[in-house]
């Protein structure tokens, strides 16, 4: 069974041999997720759109040289990330010439508070949001890739250009830092708010 | 996909392996993460059963579950409105690149011929259709030009600006030779987020100036540019790409000029208004050398100056502010005790 949200190996093969319909589907299937990922790096929508444009133009141009990635989506994530990196690095250079931070962007995480009803949950949600925001950008990114995207460490390491051990360490650091700010017992309160399966499918 | 299928086979997720798990172990476990992500009813039942069976693990297990739920709860940005628009852009770029690459499959002589044809065609189109607008001034004449977008450019003597006739559409670009004061009309409100269509760029011989809304003075003589900013914000892009520092953002009062070694030197002006004194036909100098003064007489006013090399580094301390060349020469004579002869547009400076 191939759902509408999955891009099959067969389609990838068809796209590589120049099938325009397969290319259009590659775009349609991943467009939303790519924008969503890009939005974590910048709030400059034109920049995200330019990166998506460049990504797909490059894909078509190099289609005959492409390999068979284990996950097409992750491959696209990685490519988009590199493109954004380059574009933002270019912008950053004049905004802050002497910055010693090698990460050219701020990973921006924001939380949707619509589904939270009780005051204590709202307060806790706010606390988590603030705690995540205090993390360095790379740690915010790994929290996103791990928990939001549900990727395994192999995939995270590949996208973020890390080795697997560093990916483990990075997430461990992030979670530890979050725990300093949020007591584990606090988290017990939020048992009742859970995402519905439908909402999750929509996101992916 | 594979993960879901696994669930169908097992039917119930096996939670017994989690008995000894710490909080971190839970977060590091891929199948636990997939479970929280999907929250299938059958798995949730097994999960409840697990917690009932091992009440002492309940707290840590629920905490891990909730932590993942909390970290997953994020804003989304799908940008659906732009989906078809961006794809149109992508296919337009692909079509363009395709037709460009076709030319290179032709035989060599054809390529050469095509290249020449293209050059002639571009020159033809450039001259006849895109025709550049040129505004220039004679020696000693000062004139203000209003650009099609409403920006004002005051040209000093012997200066020239060039811009496209269709200047108003998209990127605004001006090429300068000489000295000019720019009062740029800005189209944008947010100077940190300027769209390509709102940009205003001044091309000089060694740098480009990107205007972020502003009044500034440019002097580009002998391929050496100096730029003073009166108000607003501009960005200087070095044309020499081998430079480490490729850009510099100027704020009001900044003055940047050509220095030896092809780099620019930066200083703060105490009185940036002095930059625009020339627009009122005033000759203003501060701690200037005789060489600098004579260069201005040559470049802006069209004089021929004969200056002995050994006198060129003589400096007049302090400020000179005069309305005409005669007054300037009087000052030079009295302060430096020099012999200065003037005859029409010829000036000879001797000891």
Can you tell me the number of structural domains of chain B? 4
If classified by CATH, what would the architecture of the largest domain in chain B be?
Answer: Sandwich
* CATH top level class name of the largest domain in chain A: Mainly Alpha
Query: What's the count of strands of chain B?
Result: 16
- Low-pLDDT parts of chain B are 1-10
CATH topology of the largest domain in chain A: Rna Polymerase Sigma Factor, Chain: A
Counted beta strands of chain A: 0
Domain RNA polymerase sigma-70 region (chain A): 26-93
Pfam families (chain A): Sigma70_r2, Sigma70_r4_2
Organism (chain A): Pedobacter mendelii
Domain RNA polymerase sigma factor 70 region 4 type (chain A): 127-178
Walk me through the topology.
The complex is a heterodimer of chains A (204) and B (351).
Chain A: H1 9-16, H2 20-41, H3 45-61, H4 72-95, H5 119-133, H6 137-148, H7 153-160, H8 164-181, H9 197-203
Chain B: H1 2-10, H2 23-28, H3 30-38, H4 41-53, H5 55-72, H6 83-103, H7 108-128, E1 132-136, E2 143-146, E3 152-155, E4 160-164, E5 172-184, E6 200-203, E7 207-221, E8 224-238, E9 247-250, E10 254-259, E11 263-268, E12 283-289, H8 290-299, E13 304-307, E14 315-322, H9 325-336, E15 339-343, E16 346-350
Parallel strand pairs in B: 5-6, 13-16
Antiparallel strand pairs in B: 1-4, 2-3, 3-5, 4-5, 5-7, 6-7, 7-8, 8-9, 8-10, 10-11, 12-14, 15-16
Helix pairs in contact in B: 4-5
């Amino acid at each position: 069974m191939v759902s509408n949200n999955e891009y099959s190996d067969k389609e990838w093969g068809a796209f590589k041999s120049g099938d325009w319909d397969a290319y259009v589907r590659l775009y349609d299937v991943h467009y939303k997720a790519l924008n969503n990922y890009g939005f974590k790096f910048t709030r400059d929508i034109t920049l995200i759109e330019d990166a998506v444009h460049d990504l797909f133009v490059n894909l078509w141009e190099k289609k005959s040289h492409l390999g068979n990635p284990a996950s097409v989506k992750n491959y696209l994530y990685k490519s988009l990330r590199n493109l954004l990196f380059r574009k933002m690095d270019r912008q950053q250079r004049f905004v802050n010439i002497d910055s010693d931070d090698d990460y050219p962007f701020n990973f921006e995480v924001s939380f949707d508070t619509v589904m939270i009803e009780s005051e204590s949950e709202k307060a806790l949600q706010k606390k988590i949001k603030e705690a995540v925001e205090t993390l360095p950008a790379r740690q915010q990114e790994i929290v996103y890739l791990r928990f939001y995207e549900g990727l395994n460490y192999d995939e995270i390491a590949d996208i973020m250009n890390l080795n697997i051990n560093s990916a483990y360490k990075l997430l461990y650091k992030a979670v530890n830092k979050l725990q300093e700010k949020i007591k584990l017992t606090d988290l017990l309160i939020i048992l009742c708010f859970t995402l519905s399966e439908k909402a999750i499918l929509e996101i992916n | 996909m594979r993960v879901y299928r696994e669930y169908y086979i097992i039917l119930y997720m096996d939670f017994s392996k989690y008995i000894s798990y710490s909080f971190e172990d839970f977060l590091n476990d891929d199948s636990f993460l997939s479970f929280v992500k999907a929250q299938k009813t059958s798995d949730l039942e097994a999960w409840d059963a697990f917690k009932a069976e091992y009440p002492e693990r309940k707290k840590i297990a629920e905490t891990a579950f909730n932590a993942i739920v909390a970290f997953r709860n994020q804003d989304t940005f799908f940008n659906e409105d732009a989906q078809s628009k961006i794809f149109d852009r992508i296919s337009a770029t692909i079509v363009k690149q395709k037709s460009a690459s076709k030319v290179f499959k032709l035989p060599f002589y054809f390529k050469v011929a095509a290249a020449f044809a293209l050059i002639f065609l571009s020159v033809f189109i450039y001259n006849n259709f895109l025709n550049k607008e040129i505004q220039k001034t004679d020696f000693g004449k000062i004139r203000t030009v209003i650009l099609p977008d409403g920006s004002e450019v005051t040209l000093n003597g012997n200066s020239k600006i060039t811009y496209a006739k269709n200047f108003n559409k998209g990127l605004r670009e001006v090429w300068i030779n000489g000295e000019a004061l720019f009062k740029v009309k800005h189209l944008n409100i947010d100077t940190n987020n300027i769209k390509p269509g709102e940009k205003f760029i001044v091309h000089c011989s060694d740098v480009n100036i990107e205007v972020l809304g502003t009044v500034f003075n440019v002097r580009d003589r002998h391929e050496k540019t100096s730029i003073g900013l009166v108000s607003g914000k501009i960005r200087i892009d070095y044309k020499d790409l081998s430079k480490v520092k490729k850009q510099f953002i100027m704020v009001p009062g900044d003055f940047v000029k050509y220095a030896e070694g092809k780099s620019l030197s930066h200083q703060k002006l105490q009185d940036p208004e002095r930059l625009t004194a020339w627009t009122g036909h005033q000759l203003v100098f501060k701690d200037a050398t005789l060489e600098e003064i004579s260069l201005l007489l040559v470049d802006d006013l069209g004089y021929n100056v004969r200056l002995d090399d050994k006198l060129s580094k003589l400096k007049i301390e302090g400020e000179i502010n005069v309305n005409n060349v005669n007054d300037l020469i009087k000052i030079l004579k009295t302060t430096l005790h020099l012999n200065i002869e003037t005859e029409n547009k010829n000036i000879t400076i001797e000891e």
